[in-house]
Structures are given as structure tokens and as C-alpha cells.
Design goal:
Blueprint: E1 5-13, H1 26-41, E2 47-53, E3 56-63, H2 70-89, E4 114-121, E5 126-134, H3 142-150, H4 157-160, E6 168-174, E7 179-184, H5 189-196, E8 202-209, E9 215-219, H6 224-228, E10 238-242, H7 250-255, E11 262-265, E12 271-274, E13 276-277, E14 293-302, E15 305-311, H8 319-333, H9 345-348, H10 353-358, E16 376-378, E17 385-387
Parallel strand pairs: 13-14
Antiparallel strand pairs: 1-3, 1-4, 2-3, 5-10, 5-14, 6-7, 6-8, 8-9, 9-10, 11-12, 14-15, 16-17
Bound molecules: fructose -6-phosphate and magnesium ion (2 copies).
Length: about 400
């Protein structure tokens, strides 16, 4: 029997950090919590939990107002504004960074903060996991979500549990075109992989159980650089997943993070590095502003109340993953400014590198070459396309 509808909203923003871009200041979290606690007192929120992942302030909220609700988004916006005031008072670094607009107009989407929201019919026992990553982008969730919901080598339940055996559907967003396509697994697995392997463009937004359309996951897919049209930091993403009882078990969800896969982000949002799962206490991006990190908090949702959290990567079982991540970090760091450590030219167009290259533009002179490649390529990383 399913219970009442409840919405889980995770809204996050980087509004300033202590000593660079590595960790939030506790006073900014306190300022945000004050705003949310007032909203709870007024009955706008049922419950909330304020935390951080690296330099990102994370608001985890429950309510009965559905997704994209102006009151909820307004509350989050006020929390970020109040936290920004404190950040400015303390002179924190990059205060107000992700608040791209001055005035709130009913919805934080497109205004800087990242948003993952899911309205669910609460099951008698409703375990959820909130993942929060720092120094990476929404496409970082593509690989683990594929493993969790489509790879039987990760999720035994896809084979063993009849409620999951039909598979899952993935809504994939093209973040450049603003279009989405829904693909069904296992039958369209190769089509799905053909898209989501391009992590900077095709991003898994939602996952549904095929047998009954039950929503199992949602990811924040805002890409700040595309919104702002210039480099304003990476789009450190969040995701909400439901677990157990006909959905992947908690352990199947976490298993996908036992491999520290390479993600785009890290220093200046311009480098590939391993995604390291860490407990809250190690969520600070120090080495080369990284390596990229992910925190996972487990809650039970009961009548909309958030029971918990459990700090899921605070476990020796992930020590070897972290060790491998360190080894991979060490290996790839030795490449310095060379690809494949540094991102490729398409992605670098949304960083500050084009400004550096601009001054070389007029110094290039024609040379006689036997053959000229007939390819479309990006001109000096500036975004202009040229056909030779
Ligand atoms: C990456 C990030 C940092 C900064 C870097 C330079 O998402 O936030 O790696 O890009 O510390 O920061 P600025 O340009 O502010 O000195
Ligand atoms: Mg920052
Ligand atoms: Mg961040």
C-alpha cells in the first residue's frame, strides 16, 4: 500500500568557500538552516537537512508542494541569499558565486543553483540516498546510474528480483539542445550507451521502473557555464535515488561507486580525474582543488520526515576505492597541462583558456601543406566553427 505524496527537493549552490574553493564555512550552513527552520515552522517544509559537499551548500528538503514549487524554490533562494550575506561578511572566497541573478522570479532553475526533485508516493518504508558531488559535472552520474539500473554485473536484482526483471527506462537530456529522449533497458542498452558515454552533453535526468513507471532516480542537470555563457565554476551535481523493495538495494546503489571512474571537473573545471567516494568529514577538495568527490547520505522518509542520515561512504569497505582513486590521481596529474588530463577543446571553450589563446590568433601564418584535412573543427577554441 502506498502512502501520501511527498516531494524530496535537493537544491544546492556554491555561495562562497573558506580559503579558496575547497570547503564551506559552518556559519553559512547555519544561516541557511535558520531560513529552512523558519519555513518548517510555517509548515512550508515538512523537514530539512543542511549540509555540504566540498564548497557546495546543500539543502535537502521534504514537503507536499510538488516539484518546481515557487514557495520551495523561493525558500531555497532566500537560504542561499542569507548564507551569501554571511559569506560576504566573512570575506569568504567567491561569495555568491552560483547566484547568477539578483532577483528571484519563481524558480531557481536557470539562476545558478542545481536542483534535483522527485515527487513520490511514500512506501511504508522509504529508504533514499542523496548523492552530492563536488568538482565535477552532472554527467558524472551517467556511469554509476547505468550500472545501478541496467548492469546485472553491478545489480544482481535485475536478474534475481522479479519486480526489477523487466528493467528500467532512462530519460536522457541533451544539455546543449535542451531536448530529451527516453530509452528502455535492456533492449535499447546500446543506444543508451551511445549517448551517455558523451558525459558533457547527454546526461541521465530521471530513471523509472519499467513495470509500473515508478520513479527511482533524479539528477540535477543544470550546466552553469551553458547558462552563464562563460566559466563560472563547475556544475557540481546532486542526485536522489530510492532503494530496496523492488528497486536496487542500498548496497547495489553504493557498489556502482566502488570504481572511481574518471569525471570532468577538478582544477578550474578543466581536468579529468577519478571520482572519490568520501564521508562528510573528508569532503574538502584540497589536492589540486580535488580530486572530485562524492558524498552519499542515506535517509528513511517517514510521513515526509527525514530520518537519518547515515554517512554511507564512511566505511572501510571503500578504503580500497579511495586508494585506487589516489593512485589514478597521481598518475593523471603527471600529465600536467596535457590531454587527456586537461579536457578536450570543446569543453575548454567554456573555461578561461580561449582568452589566453585569443592573443595568438593573429600570429598564425599560412604554411604550405600537401593535404589539408577536410574536417569540421573548432577555431582556436573560440566556439566559431570552420570548415576547411
Ligand atoms: C573548480 C573550482 C576551482 C577554481 C580554481 C580557480 O570548480 O572551483 O578549481 O576553478 O580554484 O579559482 P579562481 O579563478 O576563483 O581563482
Ligand atoms: Mg567554488
Ligand atoms: Mg563546488
Amino acid at each position: 500500500m502506498l502512502g501520501e505524496k511527498v516531494t524530496i527537493s535537493v537544491i544546492k549552490a556554491d555561495i562562497g568557500s573558506l580559503a579558496g574553493h575547497h570547503v564551506t564555512h559552518p556559519d553559512t550552513l547555519a544561516a541557511a538552516a535558520k531560513v529552512l527552520s523558519e519555513a518548517k515552522r510555517k509548515g512550508i517544509l515538512i523537514d530539512f537537512y543542511v549540509t555540504h559537499a566540498g564548497d557546495d551548500l546543500e539543502l535537502i528538503m521534504t514537503h507536499r508542494r510538488g516539484v518546481d514549487d515557487p514557495e520551495i524554490h523561493g525558500t531555497a533562494w532566500n537560504a542561499f541569499k542569507e548564507a551569501t550575506k554571511v559569506a560576504k561578511e566573512l570575506g569568504l572566497y567567491a561569495s555568491g558565486q552560483d547566484l547568477l541573478s539578483e532577483a528571484f522570479s519563481g524558480n531557481v532553475r536557470g539562476m545558478g543553483p542545481g536542483v534535483a526533485e522527485m515527487e513520490i508516493e511514500e512506501r511504508p518504508s522509504e529508504p533514499i540516498v542523496v548523492f552530492m558531488a563536488d568538482k565535477t559535472e552532472p554527467g558524472a552520474f551517467n556511469l554509476p546510474l547505468f550500472k545501478i539500473f541496467a548492469d546485472p554485473f553491478n545489480t544482481a536484482g535485475l536478474i534475481i528480483d522479479p519486480r526489477m526483471h523487466e528493467g528500467f527506462k532512462f530519460q536522457v537530456l541533451d544539455v546543449y539542445e535542451g531536448k530529451s529522449v527516453t530509452l528502455s533497458c535492456p533492449e535499447e542498452m546500446y543506444d543508451l550507451l551511445a549517448l551517455i558515454g558523451t558525459t558533457g552533453r547527454y546526461v541521465i535526468k530521471r530513471v523509472f521502473r519499467k513495470s509500473d513507471e515508478l520513479q527511482a532516480a533524479v539528477v540535477s542537470t543544470e550546466r552553469l557555464n551553458l547558462i552563464a555563457g562563460k566559466y563560472v565554476g563547475k556544475d557540481d551535481p546532486v542526485a536522489i535515488l530510492r532503494a530496496q523493495h523492488g528497486l536496487p538495494a542500498l548496497g547495489e546503489i553504493l557498489e556502482a561507486f566502488a570504481f572511481p571512474h574518471m569525471v570532468a571537473g577538478w582544477m578550474r573545471g578543466s581536468h579529468y580525474g577519478p571520482l572519490m567516494p568520501v564521508p562528510e568529514k573528508y569532503s574538502k577538495c584540497t589536492r589540486f582543488d580535488g580530486p572530485p568527490r562524492i558524498v552519499g547520505l542515506g535517509f528513511q522518509v517517514k510521513n515526509g520526515r527525514l530520518v537519518g542520515p547515515a554517512d554511507l561512504f564512511d566505511d572501510v569497505a571503500f578504503d580500497e576505492t579511495r586508494r585506487l582513486a589516489q593512485i589514478v590521481a597521481e598518475y593523471i596529474r603527471r600529465h600536467g597541462p596535457f590531454m587527456p588530463h586537461r579536457l578536450g577543446p570543446e569543453e575548454m571553450e567554456y573555461t578561461t583558456l580561449p582568452q589566453v589563446l585569443e592573443k595568438l590568433r593573429d600570429r598564425f601564418v599560412e604554411v604550405k601543406v600537401a593535404t589539408k584535412a577536410i574536417i569540421r573543427r573548432s577555431e582556436m577554441l573560440s566556439g566559431e566553427e570552420r570548415v576547411d
